[in-house]
Write a structure and sequence with these properties.
By secondary structure, the chain is mostly beta strands. Helices cover 0% and strands 45% of the residues. The strands form three sheets. The chain has a five-stranded antiparallel beta sheet, with no helix packed on it. A five-stranded antiparallel beta sheet has the order 8-7-10-5-12, with no helix packed on it.
């Protein structure tokens, strides 16, 4: 696992009405501060990758659909150059903490759209965004987005 990345498995409390699950609590210390919460939907097969931040941490959750999430450590750390892959969404309801300096992106899996809700430690500023882009097919990262074991 890339240094500083955290995974929180969600607990669903189910009954005949549906379910309830806590996402983020202040006493868990997943985020050192709250900046913004956002939601986005992507269609099947879409790849949104890669980007990273210099100031903010991200906390990702996919409440619907499924995604292959790819992380690549750009930092001077014990895991520099390491790639991690997580499968998140309806089939695996987890929260994923992504520290600043770790490039991240995802591909929507299956035949339905995926929705992501994400929390950040700083608000987005359009005039001076803390968002650096890397192409989805970057040679240094070298990630193969094709489905394996068909």
């Amino acid at each position: 696992m890339i240094e500083g990345v955290k995974v929180k498995e969600l607990v669903k409390h189910c009954d005949d009405r549906g379910y309830f699950s806590e996402l983020v609590r202040e006493d868990e210390h997943l985020l050192d501060r709250f900046g913004q919460a956002s939601i986005s939907m992507s269609y099947p097969g879409v790849i949104k990758a890669f980007h990273y931040h210099e100031k903010q941490d991200d906390l990702w959750f996919f409440p619907s659909g499924n995604a292959q999430v790819v992380l690549y450590d750009l930092r001077e750390s014990t895991t520099k150059g390491k790639t991690d892959v997580y499968y998140m969404g309806e089939e695996n309801p987890i929260l994923l903490f992504i520290p600043k300096g770790v490039a991240h992106g995802y591909r929507v899996l299956g035949s339905t759209p995926a929705t992501i809700i994400y929390f950040t430690t700083h608000s987005y500023h359009a005039a001076n965004p803390d968002e650096k882009r890397i192409p989805w097919n970057d040679e240094e990262i070298g990630f193969d987005w094709n489905t394996q074991n068909r």
